[in-house]
Amino acid sequence: MSDRITPDKRRHAAPLPDPLPVSTVDSHAHMEIISETSPDSPQIGEILSQAKSVGIDRVVNVGYSAEQSQWCVDASEYWSTSVLAAVALHPNEAPRVLDLDHDLAIIAQLAERPRVRAIGETGLDYFRTPPELRLRQQESFKWHIELAKKLNKALVIHDRDSHDDVLSVLLEVGAPERTVFHCFSGDVEMAKKCIDRGYFLSFAGTLTFKNAPQLRDAVKLVPVDQLLVETDSPFLTPSPHRGDTNSPAQIARIVRAMAHERNEDLGELATALGTNAERIFGSFSS
Fold it and tell me: Which of 89, 95, 127, 160 is in Cβ range 3.0-4.6 Å of 133 for a Cys bridge?
């Protein structure tokens, strides 16, 4: 999630892209912000149906607060063949909650549920967090890392304006075997460090933005077995519909851009991205 904001309801939903030739996975979405409804609502069903119509038949819905992480779990259990959950306190949440220990205890409890396959999104965000609150954010990040390792679940990292410290904390604490940099925002050198350490890099609609040539350079370097794709919906809608409301269906547009930059076959890349997601998060049908 780029920022904890509610999309402007005056914005239009981005039009559906052309279907992919094979199905794949949106590895990071926030469907509850798109719909502002309950996990079992018809609106969520419509979001999933539209995504499936263009080849995105599986979605990882990702947590950012104690309350919303519960929503993710409930959605994953209701839509039990197409949705998995991740749970965490977002790095911008950690300094703001009144009782951090209480909220972390809720996350720890939710993390035990079988359809919770990752701890995230956690990490560091120095864009909105002043220096005097960053230590609390760092301690929350370390707690989430340890939880992921304890439960043998993937770690989903939010990293904004904090590349060096995120990498340092991962080295200090020890990264889980499956560590994902959600909405990768680094440059080529950052990508090389992550690749060398075996991390997974997930690219969002920012890959298509005119002001992001460093992301297009980076995505070309990532070995295909360390690559993921995501929407971070309802944020970061890919061009040419930037500013409209994003949804998991827009994965088809991002995968096309990724295949173009990497000079790879669209169907083969979509298949690999889906395989990687299930290798990291496990089967959606079990």
Answer: 95
